[in-house]
Amino acid sequence: MATSQSIAPSFFSFLKEGVLLPTRNRRLFIAVGAIIVASTTLLLLGSDLALQPLADEIQLDVKALNGTDPGSLEYAKLVQEIQNDTKELLLVGAGYILFAVVVSSAVRILLLFATVLTYSGEQRATFSELLGKANAHLKGPLLTLAFVYVLEIVYIVFLALMGALLVVLIVKQYFVLLILASLLVLSAAISLVYFSFVCSFSVVVAVAEPGCHGAAALGRACRLAKGKKWQVVLFVAVTSALATVLSQVHTLARTCAGSSVALGLLLGFVYAVLMALVQLFAVCAMTAFYYERRENIDGQLGDTVYAKLSTEEANA
């Protein structure tokens, strides 16, 4: 018996697939891309209209506070205004974060269904078919997303507590313990990047494999990503670099725009479009990475089974 040997994908192939995947069903991805742009624009407007004015007002009050006599009534008034604005900013910020999480999660799951649907061979699927598919298998990805959100929050809280411990060690001047704790915090911070990738990867698993969700999807994602840390590093580096560059360019452009509202809105829209493209690329690349790893592992299992059967036939 002869077995067909599949050519192993290159190190960068999943990134290439991340770029090319939307071209397999342009209509579908144009529709999904429009939703991403709309949601990103909405979140940017929400930040600019709800959060930024409060932050600017606090900044102005702090500047005024530095030039005011601490014993004057004006100083006490400024302190009270800063406290009130800070409380309001925290409340509005919490509401904004919750809203942003809900919106971004919904868009993320919809985009994942689009990429999985396209990559699995349904390259003529319409947007209505995508919605039907997502509605039929929504429970697993939602549970997985909620599960990994909780894990990431716990991880971040752990890092915050470790940071507080570092401050205590600095104050107490326990330098040996400080060095050890610093190494632990650094290691945990680096591991957070990989952990965040695996958490995101588990949502891909939940979408691509109905019935596998929550801890099972996370475990499956860990097994698929095992031994591919440099590809994970490459993915994180590329997507982070793109997002960082766009963010810096957007900040610089807004500074240059000055007080022009029309130009500011235009720049915000352009930034939303570019960030939508980055998000689209990231999700497509992660989906391609999933199928690449799944095919590789399934192929290895098939070779193992074939070798076992061949051995049994030879010994018979």
UniProtKB/TrEMBL annotation:
Keywords: Membrane, Transmembrane, Transmembrane helix
Biological classification of the source: Eukaryota, Viridiplantae, Streptophyta, Embryophyta, Tracheophyta
PANTHER family associated with the record: OS09G0129800 PROTEIN (PTHR34483), TRANSMEMBRANE PROTEIN (PTHR34483:SF5)
The protein's name: Transmembrane protein
Transmembrane segments: 28-46, 96-121, 142-169, 175-208, 229-249, 261-291
